[in-house]
Amino acid sequence: MATQLDYYEVLEVSRTASAEEIKKSYRKLAMKYHPDRNQGDADAEARFKEISHAYDILKDEQKRSAYDRFGHAAFEGGGGGPGGFDFSGFGGGGLGDIFEQMFGDMMGRRGGGQARSGNDIQTHVEITLEEAFSGVKKDVRVITRVACESCHGSGSENGESGVQTCPSCHGAGKVRAQQGFFIVERPCPTCHGTGRSITNPCKACHGEGTVERERVVEVQVPAGVEDGTRIRMTGSGEAGANGTPPGDLYVHVSVLEHGLFQRDGANVYCRVPLRMGQAALGTEIEVPVIDGSRANVKIPAGTQGGAHFRLRGKGFSVLRSSARGDMYIQVTVETPQHLTKRQRELLEEFETEAGEDIKHSPEHTGFFRRVRDFFEGGE
């Protein structure tokens, strides 16, 4: 049996890592090993799948709790819960699914014998801040299982006529077994939960009904999406075996850093450096807006570094809302460098004339007066 990798080691985090640390490490590794960045590299593709699977387990509190207690046995066949209890019959759905299937009959929730759908898959897409603002359609490349073209997903060379009811579970897809004081249901080991038996298996898919293919999926990223958002595309995951429903596709969105803007929720910040003379005398500046327009901002005389100017309604659209955030201009005052002789003379003249007049530099003058009083009071 192949050695199974520890999910924490796969994501390069400690077992005590927070959800945010796990998410941050996943995004970093997913970007590094994404198939789009490593085309033709089978090792990178396999690594990407391992990372995605590990994250799917550890990002879910219930699944992570089960994994921490029972390891891989909580989700795979072959043993291992307490007292020899086998979690393999519960499909890796987490503790909630375990209890639902254990007590489903008593609560009137019967599975009805329908087979599990195809596996969910995950991928990653990068967008610019402008695309996050306006929304965008992106084509993403995924390697997944699709319905076999030869047998149209039936798994049989004879099509649907070669599909019969499973003799072990009589089409229910489940069998019952005694586990201590409980009678539990699990997928039928003969038909793997499909409730069907294949005669004359398809040579192309070996009776699976699905084959591995690369396909391109168009993802609609909505306006206002934030970095780290996960978009669910129902039915765009792996095709289910033998004609069962497909799983879902989860697209993790990363928003690239911008050269001018920083985002905080629906608000946008833009850092604008002013020359010393502009801040002292006052001026009017033109600044860019995230929607591609421009705005004029009046800077009053005597503006200090760190001042903020608010532009209402110039920020991001709030997701699924007509509301819009604000834009903040953050002012810094730049000290002049590489002065000419004349410029130095003018500044020295200004310093001499200003002296200790508190009206010119109230914070500076006030601070050094307090310093003087501190030393004089200490004598």
UniProtKB/TrEMBL annotation:
Residue ranges of every copy of the J domain listed in the record: 6-71
Matches recorded under SMART domains: DnaJ (SM00271)
Textual note on the cofactor: Binds 2 Zn(2+) ions per monomer.
GO MF, one annotated term: unfolded protein binding
Renumbered ranges of CXXCXGXG motif repeats: 148-155, 166-173, 188-195, 202-209
Zinc finger feature spans (CR-type): 135-214
Amino-acid positions noted as binding Zn(2+) 2 in the UniProt annotation, renumbered to this chain: C166, C169, C188, C191
GO biological process: DNA replication; protein refolding; response to heat
Residues reported to bind Zn(2+) 1: C148, C151, C202, C205
Domain CR-type, residue spans: 135-214
Keywords noted in UniProt: Chaperone, Cytoplasm, DNA replication, Metal-binding, Repeat, Stress response, Zinc, Zinc-finger
GO cellular component, as recorded: cytoplasm
Cofactor(s) annotated in UniProt: Zn(2+)
CDD domains given in the database record: DnaJ, DnaJ_C, DnaJ_zf
One Pfam family from the record: DnaJ_C
Record's subcellular location: Cytoplasm
Keyword Acetylation: no
Subunit composition and interactions: Homodimer.
Role of this protein: Participates actively in the response to hyperosmotic and heat shock by preventing the aggregation of stress-denatured proteins and by disaggregating proteins, also in an autonomous, DnaK-independent fashion. Unfolded proteins bind initially to DnaJ; upon interaction with the DnaJ-bound protein, DnaK hydrolyzes its bound ATP, resulting in the formation of a stable complex. GrpE releases ADP from DnaK; ATP binding to DnaK triggers the release of the substrate protein, thus completing the reaction cycle.
UniProt xrefs under PANTHER family: CHAPERONE PROTEIN DNAJ, DNAJ HOMOLOG 1, MITOCHONDRIAL-RELATED
Notes concerning its domains: The J domain is necessary and sufficient to stimulate DnaK ATPase activity. Zinc center 1 plays an important role in the autonomous, DnaK-independent chaperone activity of DnaJ. Zinc center 2 is essential for interaction with DnaK and for DnaJ activity.
Family under the similarity heading: Belongs to the DnaJ family.
NCBIfam families listed in its UniProt record: DnaJ_bact, PRK10767.1
Name of the featured protein: Chaperone protein DnaJ
